[in-house]
Automatic annotation (TrEMBL):
SUPFAM superfamilies: ALDH-like. PANTHER family: ALDEHYDE DEHYDROGENASE-RELATED. Residues 19-463 form the Aldehyde dehydrogenase domain. This is Aldehyde dehydrogenase. Pfam families: Aldedh. Signal peptide: none annotated. Keywords: Oxidoreductase. The keyword Oxidoreductase applies. It comes from Microbacterium terricola. Gene3D superfamilies: Aldehyde Dehydrogenase, Chain A, domain 1, Aldehyde Dehydrogenase, Chain A, domain 2.
Length: 469
């Protein structure tokens, strides 16, 4: 078991070096992130290449054993990890936040370890036999975001290690310390060089994607950065899994019960204070229940406490960084000038701190308004009225993103019929954003390509080989 102070000291750069990392809730400097270079990257990749072959040679059974031991070690230091995550990212300890995220890391490790990927027999007719087996790729680059830095990190790391690859982790420059800490804990169990992290700027991230010794790049983040990674990786033909930006639409059908769906709508939109790739970001509600849905959602929202993440009662935190805070505030201000009606929130919660923005529901906005067409990635939800279902479906499909979508209805068959017409990697019914380690997840259109989780996630970090006899 490792306590918070020991964990932080283990990964922080010495005083006077590195880069300051501040708590977004208070502005307090909590530590200093190491600043590494492209030269450091070359050393790490060479070490990973040397470690990968003996790691692969251990076989599935031994790697599974070690991944389960890693999960145990994360559980043993869960509270220290959660505190560091809360201080660095801003999310509260309680609710679906820091403790939840750390718990998800160990749970996902165990689920990935338990997922079988057996040879697939394609032909066996007495005259010919053909089967596909899955082999390691080599060295995987895992480039992560700042919103769920540990959990998304594990989504990249766990399947890669499970299949016998070595991994180089590049965390976001906004949240490096918690990722470095998790990697440090994992390396108490793993062989040296199999899992390494580099704390650096975007230039090093680009060099990582372009490096000739990188066989696979996994990236979660913006569509713009995803395009840059595609270009950077073209020279080495690295395989890619890209989970990029989204602007998830939800459609509330006229038979939905406003009170029954309010809680699901709230957490679909505002989990992690809205800073989630597959959060509900545009809500289309039928005219007949439009006001009732808004009223029920607003009433539920008012009972959700926001504040410093280390205060046990809070379940909503600050926007993680000033750049994202300004995007959220700017979109809300623009909506006001276009006639948007502020139902809740609508201006910075300066009494809580400089980066706090309250849960904001904006009614009476339209397609084409920036708050509808642009991803807010924060605690602001536009609600759009519709009368014809065909129009709502067309609106949901109109943007060049397609990570997730949802349909809300009291009639499951009707909801499913609408769901199949939506252009997104996942469509939820009467929920939004829920994930399962055995259910593949990925986007379409500008939201990226490739699948994570379950058997498909293991295949994505493997090289298929056909055996004929």
């Amino acid at each position: 078991m490792t306590d918070y102070a020991e964990l932080l000291s283990r990964v922080s750069a010495p005083e006077g070096s590195g880069r300051e990392i501040s708590d977004p809730a208070t502005g307090e400097v909590i530590g200093r992130a190491p600043v590494q270079t492209v030269d450091d990257l070359d050393v790490l990749i060479a070490r990973a290449g040397e470690a990968q072959r003996p790691w692969a040679a251990l076989g599935h059974e031994k790697r599974i054993e070690l991944l389960n031991a890693v999960a145990d070690r994360i559980d043993a230091s869960a509270e220290a990890l959660a505190e560091l995550l809360s201080r660095e990212q801003g999310k509260p300890l309680n609710g679906p936040n820091a403790r939840f995220e750390v718990g998800a890391c160990s749970a996902w490790l165990r689920a990935t370890a338990a997922t079988p990927l057996d040879p697939e027999v394609l032909v066996d007719d007495g005259e010919a036999h053909a089967e596909i087996i899955y082999k390691p790729l080599g060295v995987v680059a895992a480039i992560g975001p700042w919103n769920w830095p540990l959990m998304i990190g594990i989504w990249q790391i766990a399947p890669s290690l499970r299949m016998g690859n070595a991994v180089i982790v590049k965390p976001s420059s906004f949240t490096p310390l918690s990722v470095l800490a998790m990697v440090s804990i994992m390396n108490e169990v793993l062989p040296e060089g199999v899992l390494q992290a580099i704390s650096a700027n975007g230039e090093v991230g680009g060099a990582l994607a372009a490096h000739p010794k990188i066989d696979k790049v996994m990236f979660t983040g913006s569509t713009a950065t995803g395009r840059a990674i595609i270009e950077a990786s073209a020279g080495n033909l690295a395989r890619l899994t890209l989970e990029l930006g989204g602007n998830d639409a939800g459609i509330v059908l006229p038979d939905a019960n406003p009170d029954a769906i309010a809680e699901g709508l709230f957490w679909g939109a505002f989990i992690n204070t809205g800073q989630t790739c597959a959060a509900l970001k545009r809500l289309y509600v039928h005219d007949s229940i439009y006001d009732a849905v808004i009223d029920s959602l607003a009433a539920f929202s008012k009972n959700m406490p926001m504040g410093n993440g280390l205060d046990e009662q809070n379940v909503l935190g600050p926007v993680q960084n000033k750049k994202q805070f300004d995007i959220v505030a700017g979109l809300v201000e623009d909506a006001k000038t276009r006639g948007g009606r502020i139902v809740t929130g609508g201006s910075p919660a300066t009494e809580l701190g400089p980066l706090f923005y309250p849960i904001t529901i904006v009614a009476d906005v339209n397609d084409g308004d920036p708050i509808v067409d642009e991803e807010q990635f924060g605690p602001a939800l536009p609600v759009i009225r519709y009368t014809e279902l065909e129009d709502a479906i067309a609106s949901a499909n109109a943007l060049d993103v397609g990570l997730g979508a949802s349909v809300w209805s009291s009639d499951p068959a009707n909801a499913r019929a609408v769901a199949t017409r939506l252009e997104s990697g996942t469509v939820w019914i009467n929920q939004h954003g829920t994930l399962h380690p055995m259910a593949p997840f990925g986007g379409v259109k500008g939201s990226g390509y490739g699948l994570e989780f379950g058997v498909e996630g293991l295949k994505a970090v493997s090289a298929p080989q056909l055996i004929r006899s």
